[in-house]
Design goal:
The protein is an alpha+beta fold. The chain has a domain of about 110 residues: ApbE-like superfamily (T-fold, Orthogonal Bundle), CATH 1.10.3980. Helix content is about 30%, strand content about 25%. The protein has a 9-stranded antiparallel sheet.
Length: about 350
Amino acid sequence: MENKSNRLKKYIKPLYLVPLLIVILLSGYFYTRTYHAVNTFTYSHITMDTVMEIRFQAPGVRAAEEIRDDIFNEVERLEKLFSRSISDSDVTIVNNNAGQEPVQVSAEVFYVTKKAIEFAELTEGAFDPTIAPLTDLWGFFSEYEYRVPDEKEIEIALELVDYALVELAPEEKSIYLPVEGMGLELGGIAKGFIVDRALEILTEAGIKNAYVNAGDIGLIGYRPDGEPWRIGVRNPRDERDMIAVLPLVDQSVDTSGDYERAFERDGIKYHHILDPYTGKPAKELASVTVITDTTMDADVLSTAAFVLGIDDGFKLIEELENAQGIFVTPELKITYTGGLQDIIEFEQ
């Protein structure tokens, strides 16, 4: 059997996820409010390079606005801890100190990093939170600097990708990357964590019906009309088309697709979901949608399953308790786990 550490170095997770049902047209930050029915409120906020939309019922405008402010203030606070784009975020400071010294971080960053390592172990590295060097090499950290690296560059970057090297000190809540050039990238788990935190605030406020969408979707209860929330699964080859609809209650959904962050060079399309063995875009699937009890789990598992491919990815999701998945190949062949048999609705 291949040495575990070497095998783990071959794995990589994708960094960026985009919304399942919304198109990003703006940058910056804004609030909007509309009323869809009596005591039903919808608010939007730009964060984490995407639009977060929350929809819920509340007893009045003042109560709804207080909940809105609590959520979006918390989202901004967490983004400042996790974002690699922010120079003084916890993650940026950890990365800047790679090979030098441990860095004491916030409880939230320590928790999410610890969970990321656990998911990396569960998926045998198909999800790896240390893929920042390879992500940067391809230019996926910045959508304006895409490039196709050569084989030697990929080989060198892969040597810096190994979650097993990360040193966590629970008592100090410190993180240490022991090799200079290593880098944490928690985008593939932190967004789900932040959506779950929004759901927690809603629940603590006594909200019984809510929808949160930041690309990763989290649901509380039913729609205001008493019916399950209806979540569309996008056709990976046509953004205007949904290949399926899922009626869901109290669950979370995330999709990883080869259409999310991609570019073309010399007639070849490249996307951000990189194959762990080659360091190049995975080719076996077009999209994976995962349904679980928490948004953080859905966030991570959709990435890992895409990387693993149709057979191993399907096996991963099928064997997990409280997880279901939909797998779409580049030829638009659809496969889904048994727990969806009685609820999935296909578009005609």
